[in-house]
Amino acid sequence: MTQQFTVSNLWIASAVAAILFDILYPIGLALLVRRRLGVGWRYFGYGALIFALFQILTRVPAVQLIQAQIAPQLQESRPLLFAWLAALSLSAGVFEEVGRYVGYRWLMRREEKTWSKAVMYGVGHGGIEAMVLVAGLALLGLVNLVALSSLDLSTLPISDEQRAQVEAQLAAVQSLPGWTPLLGAWERLWTVPFHVMLSVLVLQVFRRAQIWWLLLAIGVHALLNLAAVGLPEALGLEGLAELLLPEAIIAVAGLVSLWVVWRLRDEPREEPRADA
């Protein structure tokens, strides 16, 4: 029996639009920061490098390896699943925020660490995540969906159990509105400001000589991750509701981030008054 999956034109268009946004948005932000704050591209590169070293090349492979080993246990135990989500959230906070701290110390060394540099540093950190990790995975997912839509699923050389899993995943995709891929662009819209805020928080370790700012950044990062991935699971949400709740949480976090970034900006230095 022929089993075929269809990808709507709206889904493809939305996915392409989201991928382009994920790539162009950080570049546009960086251009704006460079123009308005006079910060060089070097600091964008610093943020990108730190994300690559502390996420793409270290944490992400380690997480994938561990998750592959414990996947059956995660499916059978909800307490273990929530513990794993908490561990993932905490590890993201630790790796990325310690990475930011190392970047300030290692890459900027003895130069003055300013708010403007921190903003560009954060755009680079969150930007490379959007451009490489998010856009890259979205493109791979789109290619796979389009490829599967041209195949008869019953002819795939996989086991019946694997075929059933593929069919269930494709059916879930088919049940969602065609604009659903745009949620990825919406998430990046607010996630990059969140990364900027985290860079500004870690900056305070050096500006105020207080290490607890690093611990605060780790905690805030871990808490947002846990809320975004854990709440839908805890509430048993499915379908569109499961996708929309994290995006609402991230949007609120992004708005708060903009306020925090502004509040922690460097105050203008007062010029000494000339004696009368």
Protein architecture, described:
The protein is an all-alpha fold and 276 residues long. It contains 9 helices and no strands. Helix 1 runs parallel beside helix 7 (182-207). The termini are far apart.
Structural class: mainly alpha
Low-confidence stretches: 270-276
How many helical stretches? Answer: 9
* Amount of helix: over 70%
Order of helices and strands: HHHHHHHHH
Please, what is the average pLDDT? 91
The description of the largest β-sheet is: none
Could you give the distance between the termini?
Answer: 95 Å
- DSSP strand (E) fraction? under 5%
What is the rounded Rg?
Answer: 21 Å
Shape: globular
| Strand segment tally | 0
Quick gist of this model?
Helices cover about 80% and strands about 0% of the residues.
Summary tags:
mainly alpha; single chain; disordered C terminus
Write the layout of secondary structure elements.
Layout (H helix, E strand, L loop, with lengths): L8 H29 L3 H16 L2 H18 L1 H30 L7 H35 L10 H16 L6 H26 L4 H24 L3 H25 L13
